[in-house]
Amino acid sequence: MISRLRADGYPVLAAANTLRGPAGDAAALRTVLDHVQGPKILVGHSYGGSVISTAAAGDEQVKALVYVAAFLPAPGETALELTDKYPGSTLPDALDPVTTTAPDGTTGTDLYIQQDKFRHQFAADVPRDRAELAAVTQRPIARAALEEKATTAAWKAIPSWGIVTTRDLNIPAAVQRFMAARAHARVTEVAASHSVAVSHPDLVTRVIEEAARATRTH
Fold this sequence. Notes:
The protein is an alpha/beta fold. It has one domain: Rossmann fold. It is built from ten helices and seven strands. The chain has a four-stranded parallel β-sheet with strand order 1-2-6-7, with helices on both faces. Strand 6 (about 160-165), helix 8 (about 175-180) and strand 7 form a beta-alpha-beta unit.
């Protein structure tokens, strides 16, 4: 996707996401947004949707939000709550929880996907070798991040696009449709796994560029 967007003349920045919690991750992203001048489009995948929904709030330079198999929480909602709103997610049975200890002695839990279940759960339509590499290099998300309530929803004020993945075993398609409809997002549905950006990069790129053209940011 990055190569395709750059080839079409769009500057791209893939900001780091530590997967620790929407508020903290959004604050970190906001420092990046403040550094990059000019109109911007934010693209969030999965939990990243929660992050961009917070980071973009009140930023007049963010012209569009693109949610790729992602969460669009309303204030007071959590990612975990939304995942369970409709049946279909098999993620809980595929997780490998790891206890962590912070420098101050407090403990928490990081969540990985079990490597032998990763492809089926997360990337069923991705070539096996690439899925296996992703399983090995995956970064964990803090359980607390999935339980943290959203405090704002930028999609209420910023035009949004959504890619709904109908074969998603992480965030059920019914959940994605509910959130996208509530946000009045322009929706593209595709028979894809949660790793749609890897399995269908042309489609995801097309939706991002559609958002760019619609908001005159190119």
